[in-house]
Amino acid sequence: MISRYSLSPMKELWTEETMYKKWLEVEIAVLKALEKQGKIPKGTTKEIVEKVKIDVESVREKERETRHDLIAFLEHIEEQIGDLSRYFHKGLTSSDVKDTALSLILIEAGRILLNEIEDIKKVLLKTAKRYKNTVMIGRTHGIHAEPITFGLKVLSWLSEFERNEKRLKEAIENIRYGKISGAVGNYAHIPPEVEEEALSILGLKREKVSTQIIPRDRHAQYVFTLSLIGVAVERVAMEIRNLQRTEIKEIEEPFYEFQKGSSAMPHKRNPIVSERLCGLSRLLRSYVFVALENVPLWHERDLTHSSSERFIFSEATQILHYMLVKLKEILENLRVNENNMLKNLDITRGLIYSENVLIRLMEKGVSRKKAYEIVQQSAIKAWEGGKDLLEVLLEDEEIMKYMDKGELEELLSVSPYLKHVDVIFRRFEDDSQG
Question: In the CATH hierarchy, which top-level class contains the domain 93-340?
Answer without folding.
Answer: mainly alpha
